[in-house]
Design goal:
Length: 232
């Protein structure tokens, strides 16, 4: 069974009405990114940050996967599919994707602020109980914080993601520019013989990668085109 690896970014979730990480304006849902998505912001005002993610979680639980998410999941019938996403939403999972690597964390989870990746203190929230009361503590006594990779923090999941990229028979990028590192560096792990498809409505700087075929459409329409190409 051939292996398809997807790398998805903010453009994947736009049609679901869910704004993910920073736009060009450096704002996230009208808040300065430094205030709500940096370690300094968290240290300075954990209550503001906790409430911001409570608000964002409500929006996420109301959002539905779009056709693009569904088509990615549908390919699991015929391919071994891994999704590497820069998005913190769970819309790929909601659409049925089984193997999802989150580079920048997951909005539906909270963790210890002392030891964010300690599995003992990572907790998954539900739609019914999505709010965290500011000041709530994790099992190790530190404040419970969003399970999000803040700006300037390391990205531990980049290594498993790079291993998946190396195994790809087909590599597909959706809704992310090839300028955001470390995710953009993943393309360098793809074998030079492997076809790379890039689905994005904007013109994209492909950074001198020879084999990238650009499907200049949004996530859903672009995925429909890709399905046709793969059938051939």
């Amino acid at each position: 069974m051939k292996k398809i690896v997807f790398l998805t970014g903010a453009g994947m979730s736009v049609e679901s009405g869910f704004k993910t990480f920073r736009g060009a304006d450096g704002l996230w849902e009208n808040y300065p990114v430094q205030q709500v998505a940096s370690h300094e912001g968290w240290e300075k005002d954990p209550t503001l940050v906790t409430n911001f993610y409570n608000m964002l979680r409500k929006k996420l639980y109301a959002a539905q996967p779009n056709e693009g998410h569904r088509l990615v999941a549908e390919l699991q019938k015929d391919y071994d599919v891994t999704v590497i996403t820069q998005n913190v939403d769970n819309l790929h999972e909601k659409a049925g994707s089984k193997n999802v690597i989150h580079l920048h964390g997951e909005l539906t989870k909270v963790c210890s602020s002392r030891d964010p990746y300690n599995p003992h203190f990572i907790k998954t929230l539900t739609a019914e109980h999505s709010d965290v009361v500011p000041g709530t503590k994790a099992g190790d006594g530190s404040l419970l914080r969003p399970f999000i990779v803040f700006f300037g923090e390391s990205v531990p999941m980049i290594e498993p993601a790079a291993e998946e990229a190396q195994k790809a028979d087909i590599f597909v990028i959706i809704g992310t520019s090839l300028n955001v590192y470390p995710a953009a560096g993943l393309v360098q792990y793809v074998d030079p013989s492997v076809p790379i498809y890039l689905i994005d409505p904007e013109p994209v700087m492909a950074g001198g990668y020879h084999k990238i075929k650009h499907i200049q459409k949004g996530a859903s329409d672009g995925m429909k085109d890709l399905m046709e190409i793969l059938k051939k």
